Amino acid sequence: MEYIAYINLPICLIALCFAWRNVNARWFLISLAAIELIDLAMLPIVQEWRTHYYLWAVFMNILFFVVVLGRMFWARQLYKLTGSKYFIKLRLEYQLSQQEAAICFLFLVSLVINLLVWFEILMYVNFVIDTPYLYSYVLNPIQSVLHILECLAVMTFITKLPKSDKRMTYDYSN
Predict the structure, then answer these.
(1) What residue ranges are annotated as transmembrane (predicted)?
(2) Which residues of 124-144 are buried (b: 16+ CB within 10 A; e: fewer)?
(3) DSSP state, 48?
(4) Which residues, other chains included, contact 51 with Cβ-Cβ below 8 Å and sequence gap of 6+?
(5) Which of 115, 172, 158 has its CA nearest to residue 139?
(6) CB of 91 within 8 A of CB of 54?
(7) Which of 15, 63, 68, 74 is the most buried (most CB within 10 A)?
């Protein structure tokens, strides 16, 4: 599981290079990469929490939903703040693809399993149960599969992008 957890950020960055011309894909991949970067940057700190590490994982999954599913709201707020035409174009071209919905589902599964493991660890620490089965036998295989499926969904996402025009006129400054 150790190495599989680190593969998502490079995949997102490579996908971002391929999907740069599509504003919707660019915004989605930048959001996803930012969340992955925060998660990886905080990993050495939160792993020391032991019991509450899984609550951190739940928080990161919720953050994903707030950032990714709230992209239109964030685009509107950033437009008000910066006045950049990019954010207007982003709001006009916003659409949730099947691959994005699949990634949302993967994060939902991760949220549920981490929440269950957190409760299980709390029960184990407080001597309610003797063996944390989800933690011991289920968590790592499921998280590994979820990381691999997320990478595959991101790769599928960039292959299913609509063709855009050759010019990127919205990238010029105001």
Answers:
(1) 6-23, 28-47, 53-74, 101-125, 137-158
(2) beeeeeeebebbeeebeebbe
(3) G
(4) 118, 121, 122, 125
(5) 115
(6) no
(7) 15
DSSP 77-102: HHHHHH--HHHHHHHHT----HHHHH
Q: What is the distance of C-alpha 167 from the center of its chain?
A: 29
Position 12, amino acid = C
Tens of pLDDT, residue by residue, the chain (174 residues): 578 888 999 999 999 999 999 999 999 999 999 999 999 999 999 989 988 999 999 999 999 999 988 988 999 999 999 999 989 898 888 888 899 999 999 999 999 999 999 999 999 999 999 999 999 999 999 999 999 999 999 999 999 887 655 555 555 555
**Lookup: tokens for 151:** 């990478």
- Residue 57 phi/psi, 5-degree rounding, is -60, -40
Q: What residue has token string 């063996």?
A: 131
114: number of Cβ within 10 Å: 23
Name the residue ranges covered by the structural domains of the chain. 1-160
Helix axis angle, 139-159 to 23-46, nearest 10°? 160
User: What secondary structure letter does DSSP report for 122?
Assistant: H
Question: Which residue type, as a one-letter code, is found at position 58?
Answer: V
Is residue 16 within 8 A of residue 30, CB to CB? The reply is yes
Amino acid at 62: I
Q: Contact 135/2 with Cβ under 8 angstroms?
A: no
